[in-house]
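Input:
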Amino acid sequence: EAGVAQSPRYKIIEKRQSVAFWCNPISGHATLYWYQQILGQGPKLLIQFQNNGVVDDSQLPKDRFSAERLKGVDSTLKIQPAKLEDSAVYLCASSSNRVIGYTFGSGTRLTVV
Amino acid sequence: GDSVTQMEGPVTLSEEAFLTINCTYTATGYPSLFWYVQYPGEGLQLLLKATKADDKGSNKGFEATYRKETTSFHLEKGSVQVSDSAVYFCALTSGSRLTFGEGTQLTVNP
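Output:
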């Protein structure tokens, strides 16, 4: 089966600019996650979708971050405006069953200068 | 809330040495436990998992046993290879959220 697709792989922007990341999960996976991984740290959950509904966005900085999953398939994560501390790898994952496990994409590495 | 604590790295070993990376957790209910591996420049890959107490997960020579009494899920490998150099993350799910530890960097020298 095809894996979780993410784009772009890399992005460099200046602070206060906006940026968007795209994720296409594994076909049939109802649950989609966005994680932020700062260098040297473990991934931190930003938002979880079940189909096209938000299940958990408690750790999403809603003043600058937004995400949507229209039609319950692919998803977009946006940052506007970006800050230096947003420099990180943004990982998308999908799952059909939490016991079986989660499949991660290769991530988007964001550098804010 | 749920949390995962891993031994601090980095860990540097010679090829064919024995590896242990400690992982302990705090969770409500009965979590499933995972080890993920991240090779340089790549995404996270599931290495092994265990879903209930006393289960042993294994893959590619790595093993970890779900110990409910000590709330631990230590990763072990009897003989590491240079190709095992990566960052290893312990994680758990309790509910639907996957919570990660901070990761342990492993470097294996020839």
